[in-house]
Structures are given as structure tokens and as C-alpha cells.
Write a structure and sequence with these properties.
By secondary structure, this protein is an alpha/beta fold. It has eleven helices and 18 strands. Bound molecules: zinc ion.
């Protein structure tokens, strides 16, 4: 089975956190967080349709400028999603520049900034290059609770965590993986081609087996035959990204629900557990807490990130502590917060 997307960390764990989610087909990408984006090429940044920003502390938002710089003459819009107050932060960023060269003749690059409250987008603002990025208030948008983006092949869900300020965590989930088995297709005597996209779509939408898929004019095949001989389906990939949160029961419950059964969980592990008091003061996790959460969410792969610079030479200790907690027998839920 081939994956719909390939996630990769933008930086090493002591640098700014960020996850680049690249689509294998279709020249498209998503970004979780906009910290230091230098390792990404302009070509990669140009593919970004949606950037999900956990919060606007500098290490999560300073890369906005680089993204804007690369995308300024793009014809397709850039969607930015962040917590309450986010649209104002985007506006301030845009206002920092002299934009007298933008006018009605410019390429109309559009930025849409949406503030997610947990239940929906309470505020949506649009900034158009042709209007020198003057802010336009748009109608609020409410999808189902927790839903940030819902497309044919995947969805992105989010939750609002407490980091002293609201901070968003995200989960990308492919709906259903439908892959073509070429040998089976060959035996059926059908060519590979764009028509397969329609077939995959029909499978994802749960169309009945007797429905007909058009291979080319005058030639159709039943969906049932395709499913039996040439298409393979499997549960889609789930990738969760969680940074900057206090270790309290409410946050943990939300993360466990968001990341449950994820194939990959990228989650902060900034402090060692001996420094749990500093972590608590700064509303961050320790590596052990991070491993506990990954364990409770029953994720397949746990990737601790966002290490504090104070452990610059002790990365292995953070990783070991996180991994030990992840591998440990699951603690009873009620016991976790007593220590
Ligand atoms: Zn941070």
C-alpha cells in the first residue's frame, strides 16, 4: 500500500518544532506550525495550501514571513488556521511591510486566517494582495466540532489545549486508503489511467458494488469486480502533532482522544522528569509525561520532539525517558496525576 502523505519534521528536536506533510501525488503539502522553515525549499513551501499554527509564540510562528515571501505571487490561496486572536497576529505581520507596490494589477494572492475555538471557526479574515492585504471580516464557519478541514481523501481534526494561553493540537487522518493492484487490473484487461480516480472515489464514498465505473467511452466495469480483482483498501494513516501543553488531566484527555490509535504521534518532550517543576511552571510536558500520553493513546509510533535547549548535550536522556514511559505497562488512568 502506498501512503497518501509523507510527514517529515522540519528541524531537529532542539530547533523550532514543525511538521511538513507532503502529498505523494498532486503537488500539495500541509504544515503544522510555522517556526524556523529554513530547511524547506521554496518549491516545498509553494505546495503548502494549509498551515495549522498551534499558537503564536515565536518558535511556532516566526516562519510566517518566509512562507509569505515565497507565496506572494502565487495564484492559489493560503489557508492559515490558529487559535483565538490569530487573525490579528496575521494582520500585524502583514502590516509590518510596505506594500505600496501591491495594487489592482497584482497577482491576487489571498490569505485566509481562521480562528479555531474548538467547536468551529469563530472568526475568519481574508487578506488579498490586490487590496494591499487590508483585513476583511468573513462569516464564521462551523463544521462539526473538532473538525478543521474535511476533504475527499482526508480530514484534519484539532483540539484546544491549555498552555497558559490557548494552543491547538492537530491530527491528520486519511479516510480510507484505496490502492490499485496493477497485476489485477492487467488481468481484467484495463489500462491504468485517470478513470481510476473515479473508481477510488466511489469506493471511499461507499458506492454499491453494482455501480458502473466508466473506463472510457463505451466501456464500463462494475465496482464490485474492480474491488475484487484490482483495488485494495485499508484504514488510512493517522498522524498527530501535539506541542506546548501543561500536564493536567483535561489536556491529557483531549490529546489521548485526538491521537488515539495514531500511526505516528509527534509530541513535545521538552524537560526531563527531574525538572518536572520547571516544566509545570512553563506549562510544558516532561519526557516521561509525553511517553505516558503516547502510551494511553495507543499510538503505533511515538516521536518525542521540541527538546529544551538546556539539554543540548543530553538528547539521549530525554529520548530514553520518553521511550521507557511509552514502553511501560499502562498506568491506571486515575494514578497518573497523583505523583
Ligand atoms: Zn514552543
Amino acid at each position: 500500500m502506498t501512503w497518501l502523505v509523507q510527514p517529515s519534521l522540519v528541524n531537529e528536536p532542539f530547533s523550532d518544532p514543525g511538521l511538513f506533510i507532503d502529498f505523494r501525488f498532486g503537488r500539495r503539502a500541509l504544515l503544522f506550525d510555522l517556526g524556523d522553515l529554513k530547511p524547506l525549499s521554496p518549491r516545498q513551501l509553494l505546495r503548502v495550501t494549509h498551515a495549522f499554527v498551534s499558537h503564536t509564540h515565536m518558535d511556532h510562528f516566526a516562519g510566517f514571513d518566509q512562507l509569505l515571501r515565497v507565496c506572494l505571487h502565487r495564484t492559489t490561496p493560503l489557508h492559515l488556521i490558529g487559535p483565538a486572536g490569530f487573525a490579528d497576529r496575521v494582520e500585524h505581520k502583514l502590516k509590518a511591510y510596505t506594500l505600496n507596490l501591491l495594487d489592482a494589477e497584482s497577482v491576487d494572492f489571498i490569505i485566509v486566517a481562521a480562528e479555531f475555538s474548538g467547536s468551529g471557526f469563530d472568526r475568519v479574515c481574508e487578506f488579498r494582495a490586490r487590496e494591499a492585504f487590508r483585513r476583511r471580516e468573513m462569516p464564521a464557519v462551523h463544521l462539526s466540532p473538532g473538525l478543521l478541514l474535511d476533504e475527499e481523501e482526508f480530514r484534519v481534526e484539532g483540539t484546544v489545549l491549555d498552555h497558559g494561553i490557548p494552543c491547538l493540537a492537530f491530527a491528520f487522518e486519511e479516510k480510507l486508503r484505496v490502492n490499485v493492484w496493477r497485476e489485477g487490473l492487467r488481468r481484467l484487461g484495463f489500462p491504468v489511467g485517470p478513470w481510476l480516480r473515479e473508481a477510488k472515489r466511489a469506493v471511499r464514498q461507499g458506492a454499491p458494488d453494482h455501480s458502473q465505473v466508466c473506463v472510457r467511452e463505451g466501456l464500463t466495469v462494475s465496482l464490485g469486480d474492480l474491488k475484487q480483482y484490482a483495488l485494495r483498501t485499508a484504514r488510512g494513516q493517522k498522524i498527530a502533532y501535539v506541542v506546548d501543553l501543561a500536564y493536567d488531566e483535561k489536556n491529557v484527555e483531549k490529546v489521548v482522544a485526538l491521537a488515539r490509535d495514531a500511526d505516528q504521534l509527534f509530541i513535545e518532550a521538552p524537560f526531563l522528569d527531574v525538572d518536572a517543576n520547571i516544566a509545570a511552571e512553563r506549562r510544558h510536558l516532561t519526557a516521561r509525561q509525553s511517553g505516558n500520553i503516547a502510551k494511553r493513546a495507543r499510538v503505533s509510533r511515538f516521536i518525542p520532539i521540541h527538546f529544551s535547549a538546556r539539554y543540548r548535550d543530553r538528547a539521549d536522556e530525554l529520548t530514553r525517558e520518553a521511550e521507557e514511559a511509552f514502553q511501560m505497562a499502562e498506568p491506571a488512568a486515575g494514578l497518573i496525576f497523583k505523583a
